[in-house]
Amino acid sequence: MASDIAAVKAAVDAAFRDEWGRVVATLIRTTGDWDLAEECAQDALALQRWPRDGIPGRPGAWLTTAARNRAIDVLRRNAVGAAKLREVAAMSYEPEPPAADDSPVPDDRLRLMFTCCHPALALEARVALTLRTLAGLTTAEIARAFLASEPTMAKRLVRAKQKIQNAGIPYRVPPAHLLPERTPGVLAVLYLLFNEGYSATAGADLVRQNLCAEAIRLARVLATLMPDEAEAAGLLALMLLHDARRAARLDAQGDLVTLEDQDRARWDQAEIAEGVTALQGALRRGQLGPYQVQAAIAACHATAPTAADTDWPQIAALYERLAWFLPTPVVELNRAVAVGMAQGPAAALPLVAALEASGKLAGYHLLPATRADLLRRLGRQSEAAAAYRDALELASTDAERRFLSRRLAETGEPA
Q1: Terminal-to-terminal C-alpha distance of the chain
Q2: Sequential DSSP letters for 53-121
Q3: 16 within domain boundaries
Q4: Does residue 92 have a pLDDT over 70?
Q5: Are 35 and 161 in contact, with CB atoms under 8 Å apart?
C-alpha cells in the first residue's frame, strides 16, 4: 500500500511538472480568464482520483479533461454564454499543439510567455506572472527569487492580471516584428526558472532538476526561434554550462559540495561542449550582453581542468564587465568573491563591507557567508564563526544550512 501511495504521489508530481503550463495555457486561450484557468488546473490536480482508479496512461490528457470539465461547471454557474461554453466543451488534449501558419512561436507555453511579457507590463511583473502561470511556481517561490516578501509579490501578481484585463491586452502571439521588444522579459523568465531549479530557494532539495530541464528545453526552442538573437544563445550557453556541473554539486548524503571540491570527472562534458559552442556562436554576432558575459564566466569554471587552474583574474574582469550591464548588489558580491580568489581575501573584505553598509542585500544569506569565508581564510576564526551564525539564520534550504554548519564547526568556535 505504501508503495502504491508513493507511486501515485510521484505520478501527481510528474504531472504537475510536465503538464501544468500546458493545461493552464490551453484554458487561458479558451476561456480568456487567467484566474479561472489556474483555479481549474489546480482543482484537477487536487481532485484527481488516481489512488482509487489507478494512474492514467496519459496523465496530461486526464488533467486537461478534468480541468476542462471544472471550467464548464464554473462557466455554467456564472452563465457566461453558450458560445464560450461550447468552445470550452470542445477542447481536446494535444501534446504539443501545432502553431498557426502565421505564428512565429512553435510552442504553446512560449506563446503564453510572450503574451505575459507584453511591454505594457513592468518587467518584474512580466517575469513573475509567467513563472506563476507557466511554471506553476508558488507566490512564495517567486517572492524569494525576487528577494521580496510574499504579500508584496501576491499584490504584484494581482495587479499584473488586472492590467491585462483593464488594458485589453490580447492573448495572442505577437507578430514577428514585435518579438524583439518582448525578448528581454522572456529571457528573464527562463533565467529565473532555471535558477529556482538549480539552487532552490527553500526546502529540503537544493536542486529541482525538473525546473532546470524545462528552462533549458524552452531556451533551446527560443534560441532556434530567434537565431539572430545573441542573448538567447548566450542564455542557453549559461544554463548548459551550469547544468553540466549539477551532478557534482551534492554528495551522496545530499550535502553541498563547493566548486573547488567538486569531482570534475562527474561534470557533463557533452553539456560543457554544447555550452561553449553556443557561447562562441553568440559572441561571433558582436552583440555582447549580460547573459553572454555570465556564460563566459561559467565557461572559465567549466573548462578549467582543476580548481587551481581557474583563471580568477579573468573571472574578476568579467564580473566588472557584467556590473556595467547589471549594476546590482548580487553582481558586486560575486565580483568580491572573484577578487578574493584572484588577489586574496584581504582585497575582497572592503568590497563586502561596502555592500553590508549599503543594506542592499539585507536578509541575503550569501552576504554573511561570503564575509565568513574571507575571514576564515585570513585565520580570523572567531569573527568568521559569528558571520557563519548570521548566514545560518538566513539560509533557507537544508543543504545550505548543513554546509554552513560544517564550516562553522571548522572554525573551532561554538555553534
Answers
A1: 42
A2: H---S-HHHHHHHHHHHHHHHHHHHHT--HHHHHHHHT----SSPPPPTT-S--SHHHHHHHHHT-TTS
A3: yes
A4: no
A5: yes
Secondary structure class of 203 (helix, strand, coil): strand
Contact 142, 128 (CB under 8 A): yes
The reply to whether 40 falls in a domain is yes
Tally of residues, the chain: 415
Backbone torsions φ then ψ of 134, nearest 5 degrees: -85, -45
- Closest of 343, 377, 340, 376 to residue 355, by C-alpha: 340
For the segment 179-195, what is each residue's pLDDT rounded down to a tens digit? 777 888 889 888 887 88
Distances (CA, A) of 399 to 144, 208, 249, 256, 367: 17, 13, 10, 6, 17
Give the count of domains, the chain.
1
Can you state the angle between helices 230-243 and 269-284, rounded to 10 degrees?
A: 160
- Domain encompassing residue 15: 2-89
Residue 15 lies in a domain: yes
Percent of the chain with pLDDT over 90: 42
| Residue 236 · residue 294 · CB < 8 Å | no
What is the number of helices (H) and of strands (E) in the chain? Answer: 20, 0
Residue with cell 507590463: 121
- Grid cell locating 34: 487567467
